[in-house]
Each structure stands twice: as structure tokens, then as C-alpha cells.
Specification:
The chain is an alpha+beta fold. It contains 2 helices and 6 strands. It has helices spanning 7-19, 72-85, and strands at 28-45, 48-65, 99-104, 110-126, 132-134, 137-141. α1 (7-19) packs across α2.
């Protein structure tokens, strides 16, 4: 599985799907700024590594948000629900809570800016043709596969020595 979508892209897709058909992709813009690369090099097994976390400030801008047709609190609830469901340990990484700026520009429309901190894992898997040289090998950016046990064998021993 390729690591192709950032938390910001996932959040924007979630908001667009939740607000359609009233909001379309032409009314939303998003970007990253002031990022910090947190290095770690953790071995995740399966020959994969987490080389860093990318902590950044994200901005989502809604143009012509129909604040009379969509209760702005619904948008706030959607952002909150996404962040809670993402299960990122926001407190562990000192991620600030979102800041929202709502500017009513007409009777029917508002410009809404959502600023928040997000974090993405940057993981590597082996690839002979990969662009990243690391730890004496070649790698590509991708999520490291997770092996899940299909069964567990247990042995229970009861002792009468108590």
C-alpha cells in the first residue's frame, strides 16, 4: 500500500464528502506550512522503517461557504469528529487544537479558514529501485505492512502445588 495521502488530504476528502452537494471541490483549498521533520528511524518489522514524522500546520480555506444553508457548527463537528476518529495521540505530540476564522462576506456566503496541526508518518519499505538510500539499502516511501496473527496456540498448565 503506497503512502500517498496525507492527513490533510484525508480530512479534505472527508469534509467534501460530508458537505456535498452543497460544497464542491472548487470551493475548498488546502495547504501545508511551517513543518517540522521529527526523525526516529524505528524498525517496524517486515524490513520496514518509520524514518520520521512530518508535523505541520495545515490550512483549509472554504470560499463561498453557504453559512445560511449549512450550520457552521456542523463543519466544526465534522473537523472534530475526523480528528477524534483518526486516533492520533495529539497530546503526546503537542498538536494544537484547530483555530477557525469565519468571515461573513455576504448575506449568503462566508469565507472560513481552518488552521490546525497534523502529523503524518513517513515509512519506508525495501525496493531495489527505490529513490531513498537508507541503512545500506534502497527503499521507497510506503506504509509498512502489518502482519496479523490468524490463530494463537496457548498452553495452560494447572499446578496443584499451591
Amino acid at each position: 500500500m503506497s503512502q500517498t495521502k496525507t492527513q490533510l488530504q484525508q480530512l479534505c476528502e472527508f469534509l467534501l464528502a460530508s458537505l456535498q452537494p452543497v460544497i464542491n471541490s472548487n470551493n475548498i483549498d488546502a495547504w501545508q506550512e511551517r513543518g517540522t521533520l521529527i526523525l526516529n528511524g524505528d524498525d517496524l518489522g517486515c524490513n520496514g522503517y518509520e524514518v520520521a514524522k512530518w508535523k505541520y500546520n495545515a490550512v483549509i480555506a472554504f470560499e463561498q461557504f453557504p453559512h445560511r444553508r449549512i450550520n457552521s457548527y456542523n463543519l466544526l463537528a465534522m473537523v472534530s469528529a475526523f480528528l477524534i476518529d483518526s486516533e492520533w495521540p495529539r497530546d503526546d505530540y503537542g498538536l494544537d487544537d484547530p483555530e477557525i476564522d469565519i468571515d461573513v462576506v455576504s448575506r449568503d456566503n462566508a469565507t472560513i479558514l481552518i488552521e490546525l496541526q497534523l502529523m503524518d508518518d513517513i515509512e519506508l519499505i525495501p525496493d531495489d529501485n527505490g529513490p531513498v538510500q537508507f541503512n545500506g539499502g534502497r527503499y521507497r516511501v510506503s506504509l509498512v505492512p502489518i502482519n496479523i496473527a490468524e490463530s494463537v496456540d496457548t498452553v495452560v498448565s494447572l499446578s496443584d502445588d499451591e
